[in-house]
């Protein structure tokens, strides 16, 4: 058969990143049959998980007959390449991962790690979700967000206008709005 695609669906990769952290709850959520089935239903073909310092190892098998190709790794020097080749990015709430993904104009679901104390990251993700730049989820709501998301409704993020972000950072630091 060779490597020809024979008119089959093009490769659509979901890239999951936890950055340098341990976020087993996100990796575990991605590894559930219900999430894999939902991704398949939405036309995704590959799931690539960057699991960071986590100890939970996802299974490489997808669900059902037409299965999702699943792979994972801990760290990579080429995260930007993975982001570029992704059709959908599911990320922890680290600001670096968020802004890099938005800069590449990739649809993004940010999953907030509720185990982190003093979670400013969730405020940033929720603010950007309110502005329709991304979707925000918790590990336990991820399947519902994937099922309900309309990627066409997301608005591109224009880093040229730093005013809203600067105001947001000032608010986090306790400075009054101008």
UniProtKB/TrEMBL annotation:
Q: Which GO terms describe its biological process?
A: dolichol-linked oligosaccharide biosynthetic process
The record's GO CC annotations read: UDP-N-acetylglucosamine transferase complex
* Record-linked InterPro entries: Glyco_trans_28_C, UDP-GlcNAc_transferase
Transferase among the record's keywords?
Answer: yes
Q: Name the UniProt key words of this record, in alphabetical order.
A: Transferase
Q: Name one GO molecular function term.
A: hexosyltransferase activity
Q: Where is the Glycosyl transferase family 28 C-terminal domain?
A: 13-167
- Mention any Pfam family matching this sequence: Glyco_tran_28_C
- Record bears the keyword Cytoplasm: no
Name this polypeptide is given? Glycosyl transferase
Protein's organism: Trema orientale
């Amino acid at each position: 058969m060779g490597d020809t695609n024979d008119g089959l669906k093009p490769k659509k990769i979901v890239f999951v990143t936890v950055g340098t952290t341990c976020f087993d709850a996100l990796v575990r959520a991605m590894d559930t049959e219900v999430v894999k089935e939902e991704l398949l239903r939405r036309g995704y073909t590959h799931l690539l998980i960057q699991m960071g310092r986590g100890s939970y190892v996802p299974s490489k098998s997808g669900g059902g007959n037409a299965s999702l190709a699943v792979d994972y790794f801990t760290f990579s020097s080429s995260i930007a390449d993975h982001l570029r080749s992704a059709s959908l990015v599911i990320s922890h709430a680290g600001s670096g991962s968020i802004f890099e993904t938005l800069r590449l104009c990739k649809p993004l679901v940010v999953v907030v790690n509720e185990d982190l104390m003093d979670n400013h990251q969730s405020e940033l993700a929720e603010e950007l979700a309110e502005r329709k730049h991304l979707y925000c989820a918790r590990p336990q709501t991820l399947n519902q967000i994937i099922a309900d998301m309309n990627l066409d409704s997301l608005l591109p993020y224009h880093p040229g206008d730093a005013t809203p972000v600067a105001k947001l950072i000032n608010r986090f630091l306790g400075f009054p709005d101008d």
